[in-house]
Amino acid sequence: MPESAVENELVAILGHHLAELRMARGLTQEQVALAAGMSRNHYQLLEAGLRARKPRKPANPTFTTLVALSEVLDTPLPDLINEVWNRNAG
To answer: Which Pfam families did the record assign (predicted)?
Structure first.
């Protein structure tokens, strides 16, 4: 099933927000990835809004991944998700 424009927009917003949270906490991508139990490459792809570089497919993080990232980035999961929705609406 082809991705929708909304899906692409939401994962781009999520990736940008993850990068903002990470930088605000003075963490590297590698530090976040290690603490969240994933590879640095996987985390880099999430920040880029991708699940694979070629072909360029939008990210589709699991609930478990989102929970782990919210814990590492010290942000409640509802806040992480709401920020994505709020930026999409604005």
So the answer is: HTH_31
Q: Mark out the alpha helices in the chain (DSSP H runs).
A: 5-24, 29-36, 40-47, 63-72, 77-89
State what percent of residues in the chain have pLDDT above 70. Answer: 96
pLDDT (0 to 100) of residue 52:
84
Amino acid at site 56: R
Which CATH number is 5-85 given?
A: 1.10.260.40
What's the pTM?
0.90
Backbone Cα Rg of the chain: 12
Closest residue by Cα to residue 49 from 40, 57, 39, 41 = 57
